[in-house]
C-alpha cells in the first residue's frame, strides 16, 4: 500500500493560531506534518515572512481555500498568493444549495472559475460537507456537481467524515473519483448516533481501506482536519499523525 505525504487543515487549530500563529505552526511541524492548507498570513506578517517561517519549519503550502458559500473572490489574487509561497496548486471552495436548478447554476460558475484558475496553473477543488448528499429530484447534490462540471476544471477534495455523515461509504465514493480527488480530507467519527469528530484511528472509519482507495484514484495528499475535538486540538492532531504512522500510511 502506498504511503502518502500528510498535511493538516489549520481550521483544526483556528483558536490557537489566533493566539500564537508562529508557535502553533511550530507545533504542527514538530508533530511531523509536511504540508498545510493555508491562506494569507495574519495582520502584521507579510507573505514573504510567512514563507520564511514555513521554509524554516519544513511545511509546504499544499493549497488554500477560497472561502465558504461565496464566489466573491479573485482567482488571480489566490494564484498570486500560491506563487509567492511556492505552494501547491490547489484552491478549494464549499457551497450550499437549495434546489437542483441552484446546483446546476453553481456548477456552471464552478466551471467558469475553474477555467480562470487553470490559466494560472491552479486546480480548482470542491470540498464537500454532508448536505451535498441530500437529494434533489432523486439525485445527490454531489453527483449532480460531478456530472455538470468539467473534470479537468473542477475536481473534488472529498471529506471522509462528511461523506460518512451524509450516509455514504467514503471508500465506495472514492471509487467514483478516478483522477478527480487530488487532495483527501481525512477525519474519523466516533461510534454512536451523534458520530462526533474523532482523531484518525480512534473512531469507526477504516483508513487503510480509505487510503487504498485513494491510491487507486490518484490522490496526492492526505489532509488531516478535525472540526471539533474533545481534547486540545494540537493533541488531537498528534494522535491522528501517530495513528497514521502506526498504520504505515505516512510517507517519510
UniProtKB/TrEMBL annotation:
<keyword id="KW-0413">Isomerase</keyword>
<dbReference type="InterPro" id="IPR013022">
    <property type="entry name" value="Xyl_isomerase-like_TIM-brl"/>
</dbReference>
<dbReference type="InterPro" id="IPR036237">
    <property type="entry name" value="Xyl_isomerase-like_sf"/>
</dbReference>
<dbReference type="GO" id="GO:0016853">
    <property type="term" value="F:isomerase activity"/>
</dbReference>
<dbReference type="InterPro" id="IPR050312">
    <property type="entry name" value="IolE/XylAMocC-like"/>
</dbReference>
<dbReference type="Pfam" id="PF01261">
    <property type="entry name" value="AP_endonuc_2"/>
</dbReference>
<feature type="domain" description="Xylose isomerase-like TIM barrel">
    <location>
        <begin position="25"/>
        <end position="233"/>
    </location>
</feature>
<protein>
    <submittedName>
        <fullName>Sugar phosphate isomerase/epimerase</fullName>
    </submittedName>
</protein>
Amino acid at each position: 500500500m502506498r504511503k502518502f505525504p500528510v498535511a493538516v487543515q489549520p481550521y483544526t487549530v483556528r483558536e490557537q493560531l489566533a493566539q500564537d500563529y508562529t508557535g502553533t505552526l511550530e507545533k504542527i511541524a514538530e508533530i511531523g506534518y509536511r504540508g498545510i492548507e493555508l491562506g494569507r498570513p495574519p495582520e502584521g506578517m507579510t507573505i514573504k515572512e510567512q514563507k520564511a517561517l514555513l521554509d524554516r519549519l519544513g511545511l509546504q503550502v499544499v493549497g488554500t481555500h477560497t472561502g465558504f458559500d461565496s464566489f466573491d473572490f479573485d482567482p488571480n489574487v489566490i494564484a498570486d498568493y500560491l506563487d509567492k509561497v511556492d505552494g501547491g496548486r490547489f484552491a478549494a471552495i464549499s457551497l450550499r444549495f437549495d434546489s437542483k436548478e441552484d446546483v446546476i447554476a453553481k456548477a456552471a460558475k464552478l466551471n467558469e472559475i475553474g477555467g480562470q484558475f487553470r490559466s494560472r496553473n491552479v486546480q480548482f477543488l470542491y470540498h464537500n460537507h454532508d448536505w451535498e448528499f441530500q437529494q434533489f429530484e432523486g439525485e445527490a447534490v454531489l453527483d449532480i456537481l460531478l456530472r455538470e462540471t468539467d473534470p479537468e476544471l473542477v475536481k473534488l477534495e472529498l471529506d471522509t467524515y462528511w461523506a460518512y455523515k451524509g450516509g455514504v461509504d467514503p471508500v465506495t465514493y472514492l471509487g467514483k473519483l478516478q483522477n478527480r480527488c487530488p487532495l483527501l480530507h481525512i477525519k474519523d467519527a466516533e461510534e454512536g448516533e451523534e458520530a462526533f469528530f474523532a482523531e484518525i484511528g480512534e473512531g469507526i472509519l477504516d483508513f487503510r481501506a480509505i487510503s487504498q482507495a485513494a491510491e487507486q484514484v490518484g490522490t496526492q495528499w492526505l489532509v488531516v482536519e478535525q472540526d471539533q475535538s474533545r481534547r486540545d486540538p494540537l493533541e488531537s492532531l498528534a494522535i491522528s499523525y501517530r495513528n497514521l504512522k502506526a498504520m504505515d500510511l505516512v510517507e517519510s
